[in-house]
Structure formats: C-alpha cells, structure tokens
Amino acid sequence: RWDLLLAVSFLKGRVSGPDEYDWSKLERVLHYLNGTLDMGVVLGVNGKIEIDASIDASHAVYADARSQGGLGISLGFGLVKARSHKLSLNTKSSCESELVTTSDNVPEVIHLRDFLIGQGYKMGPSQVRQDNQATIRLLEKGKSDSKRTKHINTRYFFVHDRMIKGEISLNYTPTELMVADFFTKPLQGNLFLRMRD
C-alpha cells in the first residue's frame, strides 16, 4: 500500500528507541489501515505505455538533519513503483537534497525503461518530474558553476548524461501536483486524499 510508505518509513527509524509520541503515530496508522481495508492498487494505461516518474525530497526533516526522498513511477495511472527513504547523507540545501534524491532514484526509472525495451516495447524518453527549478538547472548544465553548489560531488550529475542520451526527460512540475510529495512529507486532508487517489 503506497499510501502507508511515508508513515512506515518514519516509524521504522524509531523501532530501537520509541516514545509515546511514536506509539500514537503507530496507532493512527493502524486506525487508518483498519478503516481502508477495501482499498487496493489500481493500475492502467491510456494508449501507449510511457514512464512517468515523480521524484521529490523534503530537506532536513530528521533530528540528524537528514532529508526524506520519494519516488513514484507510473505507466499510465496508478503507481507501479514507489519509494520513501531517508537520505544516506546530509545536504546543505533543499536544492542539494533534490539533486541527491534524483540521482538516487533515476536508476529505477532507467531500469524499468530498459526492462520494457527488452520486452519489445518502443520507449521514448522517460519523463522525470521535479519541483525544484534550481535542481533542474543544475542537472541541465551537468555541473556546478556556483559558489553555493561547487561542493557537490560530480557523481550526482550522471542524470545529465542520461538526459543527453535521450533516456530521460526532466520536467518541472509544481509542488501541488507532485506525486512524490506523498512520499516525502505528511499531507493533510484533501491533498492527502487527492494524492492517494
């Protein structure tokens, strides 16, 4: 259940030292799960199969200042792959968190594309959605050219190479339409329901 990924991701980091606040979060997840037992995953394609990935990060959301990354991949409607994870390193800005998360998750997109090509599907570039315009500019350039970003390791720019090869297409998507937001930060009310659906 993709709608439980973020909550489970946060809670699993608290297993060794939970407190009463963590217990109340777990109870809330269990109540939600119990109330939505009939929900399932719905998948579909409208015409041609195309990969549509959404990658996002929330900067410095943990006590150790680590960020939360998220990925959602669709072939039409419904997600065939989703991921919510704590970044393995600290970053200095939300732009850098987004860059690291994009670099960590684009291999999933490339793997799915290669798999579909291997199955005989003709695939154009996979669409990768990103809501941070500074991150998009960095990836389009393929390198850092600013004092604020020159510390960033070049390994995070392999996405630029995949863009040049035509394997992926990086596109700006406003935050309120970003499916991967669902896997990086707690959403409330109608926004939660819209993203879940």
Question: What descriptors fit this protein?
Answer:
alpha/beta; 16% strand; globular
Produce the secondary structure layout.
Layout: H1 5-12, H2 20-35, E1 52-58, E2 68-74, E3 79-86, H3 94-118, E4 126-130, H4 133-141, H5 158-164, E5 168-172, H6 189-196
Parallel strand pairs: 1-4, 4-5
Antiparallel strand pairs: 1-2, 2-3
Helix pairs in contact: 3-4
Please give the share of residues in helix. 25-40%
Sheet with most strands: strand arrangement: 3-2-1-4-5
Mean pLDDT: 89
Query: From the structure provided, what is the oligomeric state, counting identical versus distinct chains?
Result: single chain
How far apart the termini lie comes to 12 Å
Q: Please describe the biggest sheet, giving its number of strands, its sense, and whether it closes into a barrel.
A: 5 strands, mixed
Tally the beta strands. Answer: 5
Note the run of SSEs as H and E: HHEEEHEHHEH
| Derived structural class | alpha/beta
**Share of β-strand residues:** 15-25%
How many H/I helices? 6
Unreliable stretches (pLDDT < 50, length at least 5) are none
The general outline is globular
Radius of gyration: 17 Å
